[in-house]
Amino acid sequence: MNRITITLPNGKTLETAPGTRAIDFIDALTDAPETVYAVRVNNMICSLNKSLQTDSIVEPVIAKSKDGAEVYRRTLCFVMEAAMHEIDPNYRLLIGHSLGYGYYYTLADGNGIHPPLIEKLKVKMAELISKNLPIETFSLSYQQAMELFEQEGLTDTRNLMRYKCPPRVQLNILGDFKEMYFAPLLVSTGYLKTWEIIKYGNGFLLRFPTSQDPDHLTEFHDIPELFKTYERYKKWGKQIGVTTAASLNELVANRKVNDFITISEIFQQKCIADIAQEIQNRGKVKLVLIAGPSSSGKTTSAKKLALELQAIGYTPKVISLDSYYIGRNKTPIGEDGKPDYECLEALNVPLINQNLLDLFDGKEITLPEYDFKTGVSSITGPKMQLGENDIVIMEGIHGLNDKLTPSIKPQNKFKLYLSPLTQLNFNEHNRISTSDNRLIRRIVRDSQFRGKSAAGTISMWENVQKGERLYIFPFQNNADAILNTALDYELSVLKIFAEPLLKMVTPMEKEYSEACRLLRFLDVFPTIDPTEVPERSILREFIGHSKFKY
Length: 550
Known about the structure:
There is one protein chain. This protein is an alpha+beta fold and about 550 residues long. It folds into 4 domains: about 5-60, Ubiquitin-like (UB roll), CATH 3.10.20.30; about 70-205, Threonyl-tRNA Synthetase, Chain A, domain 2; about 225-315 and about 390-545, no CATH class; about 320-350 and about 360-385, no CATH class. It contains 14 helices and 23 strands. It has helices at about 65-85, 115-130, 140-150, 155-160, 225-240, 245-255, 255-280, 300-310, 350-360, 435-450, 455-470, 490-500, 510-525, 540-545, and strands at about 5, 15, 20, 35-40, 45, 50, 55-60, 95-100, 100-105, 135-140, 170-175, 175-180, 195-200, 205, 285-290, 315-320, 365, 370, 375-380, 385, 390-395, 415-420, 480-485. The protein has a 5-stranded mixed β-sheet with strand order 2-1-7-4-5. Strands 16-21-15-22-23 form a 5-stranded parallel β-sheet. A hairpin with a 2-residue loop joins strand 4 and strand 5 (about 45). Helix 4 packs across helix 6 (about 245-255). The radius of gyration is 25 Å and the shape is globular. The N and C termini lie far apart (about 65 Å).
């Protein structure tokens, strides 16, 4: 009888029969009492029901990990959607954006979700979880899948698959509910022990734990300005008829995408102009602070805002926070034993405040310079003095944190938060993650301008996100305005650059699973010729050939 060899994380091997599932030897995967949500088989994340046919290296995907958290969240959404389907198949839920470690849901028909229905949903969901029901997968031919989507009323999914024609389609099933996901789920409902549903807006939030603490929910902190920005873009998407990847595909197929690109750019520019007008309306603003997570397009947004401010009479002066690093030998050491350049203490905060106060008093200052090669800071930069209509724009990671500028009066500051908050979904139940959008931007930019591989960018992405959780996201509520820097056509352009880079990640690399997931993510989008992107678009910050100088 044929045998296969399974190599475990501790280096031990297991001889077993082909067809053995990962769940059959789950206890051997970890020495610690960890909850295992999925497995990594030869660097590909798979369900615990994965049937192993060849020699494999198998590692656990535990609850307390980024990948584990994603498996948990996908499954939680799937089970919640199945619960609503059991209550009444005519209630079709629409997943929206993330907010406070939760996803915002509404009804697809636009009607409000009232508290009695939410209570029914909670009860039904708890019932499905308590029964520890199996979550199964099955494969259909393309034709069978399309017929099923038609029967089940999964219109968005059917429309999406019109432009993506694989010979086989894998679906997830729980009871009578069926849906297609792009990555593995948990094998049963009983794993979902930590969640809550709370009434919010016109719908509700399905909340989940963080990857750092999978057994507890964090306290909910509302971010009204962020929600308002999301809703503004959702409304705009509905008005122009582009709310899903399928509707974008249709524009490309019908050769109408050029107008959509123009409309998207105009709408974004209008939002920037509105922010400039709000700054002017406040009357006393002398300093604009801009912050946002990685690959939000902060540099181009700052340049676009500067032009809008010039158009209404201001003369913007830009100061980079990078100039204010205190020096490598004074920088605090992080948990990894390396200098932590992202913490606030890595900046010369007293000098920042003194320079700003002097500028506002009409004095001339000499800006500092930081040499990234030597790690030395010196007061040898250019001189600066503000005129009557001058305004300072300062962009950097800590812009929303009031501890950066404690000496500056609140009425003299305007804090702007940026992030690409795409309003597109794949379908009713699969959202496009802001983090994924930013990661694809970053992969393309790192390759274009820094010569970094996709695997290299993916490998450091978790550390980037850790810095964002510590230094950016906690201060979102301090923002006076939020600018959505997403362009809903951008993934079709980025795809041309990102796909060949992601295909270069090999199965021997730890980043292979994430690269494959991103390739599946991009596969549903059509391609749009990069020459169609305007020369002053935020997207040019990542693909190159911008009219702006960086």
